Structures are given as C-alpha cells and as structure tokens.
C-alpha cells in the first residue's frame, strides 16, 4: 500500500530545514587556515600619534615590506643580478644581497651604484638600459627612497609631522610608471631589464603586479585621507565659528 502524500505544510518545513542546513554549512568556518588580522603591540610613542599618523606609519611599514618581498622575487627570477654585488670573502647568495639592501633602506644609506642620486633621479638611473650594476638592488633602494621622500623623509609620523597629499599621490603615480617601465623597457640585447610577471600558455604569474598594486592603493588611500583631514578641519572651523554665533539655543524660562 503506497504511503499517504505529504501535506503542503510538511513539504514547506522540509524545504526550510534543507535550506537551513545549507546555510549552516556555508557559514561554518573553512578548514583552510587563512590567517587573521594581528594588531601591533601598543608602544609608548603612540601617545604622540594621531589616527592619521598611525595610519601613515603602518602604511609606510607595509609598503617597505612589499618592496622587500618584490626584491626577493626579482632576485629569484634574476639570479645574475645579486651575483653582481658579490665581494671577495663574502658568502654568495640572494639572502645576503637582500640583507644589504634592507640595511641601506632602513638607515637611509646611499646606494653606491646609484652615483649619489636620490628619489626619482635614482629611480630613472636604476631603470635605464645603460645601468650595469645590480639592478634589483638599485631599483629597490631607489623606489624606497622615493617613497620616503614623498612622506617628508620619514618612516614614522607623530603629531608634529605633516604630510603632503599631492606628494603621496605623485608617489603612487611614480610607482605605476616604474612598473610599466619594468614590464616594457628592453636592454640592448632585446631582453627585459628584469624578468618579473610572466604570462605564457602554461603559466600566469602576476604576483609582482599584485604587490605593486598594494603599494599604489596604500599611497592613494593615505593621500585621500590627508587631503580630507585638512578639508574637514577647515569645515569644522567654519561650523564652530558660525555655530558660536547663530546656532546657540535660547533660554525658555
């Protein structure tokens, strides 16, 4: 004897139960650990930082770390570059080469192959076909110096420090130009100055472009925040000025 047909209400409840189970499955945590946001430990110096100061400091640190990551990737794809910087008695390797570059950037030391040039002049030399030194090191040092110069020559920012929104915006455009040159310019032998992103029938590696995109986005965001900061300060001043005269409540008793 066949079972009795299910009622419409019973079918509705079954559908709701299945939908709930599906949503619960979608909302359950993934098995893959994708990490989590880690806040930095509180430092006493933060008492002398505004929100924008702190944002600029974190952004600068993240941008320098992105440059170091790109540097290591470029050394992996262009091992001939770090070999140019080897000196007698030193252990060869891209790790040692990268350490020297980091030290020069963090201590604002001039990079000798750049011939005393700084900022965009150093960047232009590092990306010229005639440059014969370690191009990865020169490109990293020059880009870092350009970014620090755009931030007023500092990597940490406090209440007494000011930032120029236009300089930050220009730095973002400079990074875009540098990335384009890196991808398009060729040496005398017709080969790219440095092997970076790779798109072939079997490979699609855009990790360099993505990392540079992060640097550009951070710079543009900070430029917008700095510009908005001074704009809002002017508006608040006018509001307080007008409000002090015309927007005061009147006594009612």
Protein model, in words:
The structure is a single chain. A two-stranded antiparallel ribbon has the order 1-2. A hairpin with a 4-residue loop joins strand 1 (198-199) and strand 2. Helix content is 59%, strand content 2%. The model has no long low-confidence stretch (mean pLDDT 81). It contains eight helices and two strands. It has helices at 8-27, 51-77, 79-84, 94-106, 119-126, 135-150, 165-184, 207-246; strands at 198-199, 204-205. Helix 5 (119-126) runs antiparallel to helix 6, helix 6 (135-150) runs antiparallel to helix 7 and helix 7 (165-184) packs antiparallel against helix 8 (207-246). It is an all-alpha fold. The protein starts with 7 loop residues before the first helix and ends in a 7-residue tail after the last helix.
Task: Tell me briefly what this model is.
The protein has 253 residues and is mostly helical. 59% of the residues lie in helices and 2% in strands. It has a two-stranded antiparallel sheet.
């Amino acid at each position: 004897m066949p079972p009795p047909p299910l009622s419409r209400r019973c079918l509705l409840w079954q559908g709701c139960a299945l939908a709930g189970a599906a949503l619960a499955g979608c909302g359950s945590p993934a098995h893959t650990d994708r990490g989590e946001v880690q806040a930095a430990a509180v430092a006493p110096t933060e008492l002398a930082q505004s929100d924008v100061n702190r944002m600029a400091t974190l952004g600068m640190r993240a941008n320098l770390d992105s440059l170091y990551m790109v540097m290591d990737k470029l050394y992996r794809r262009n091992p001939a570059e770090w070999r140019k910087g080897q000196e007698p008695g030193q252990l060869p390797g891209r790790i040692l080469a990268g350490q020297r570059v980091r030290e020069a950037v963090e201590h604002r030391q001039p990079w000798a192959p750049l011939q005393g040039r700084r900022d965009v002049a150093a960047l232009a030399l590092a990306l010229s076909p005639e440059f014969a030194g370690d191009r990865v090191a020169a490109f990293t040092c020059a880009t870092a110096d350009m970014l620090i110069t755009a931030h007023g020559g500092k990597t940490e920012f406090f209440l007494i420090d000011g930032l120029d929104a236009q300089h930050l915006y220009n730095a973002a455009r400079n990074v875009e130009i540098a990335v384009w040159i890196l991808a398009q310019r060729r040496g005398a032998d017709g080969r790219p100055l440095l092997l970076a992103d790779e798109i072939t029938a079997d490979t699609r590696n855009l990790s360099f472009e993505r990392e540079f995109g992060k640097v550009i986005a951070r710079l543009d965001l900070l430029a917008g925040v700095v510009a908005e900061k001074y704009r809002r300060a002017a508006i608040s001043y006018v509001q307080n000025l007008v409000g002090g005269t015309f927007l005061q409540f009147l006594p009612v008793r």
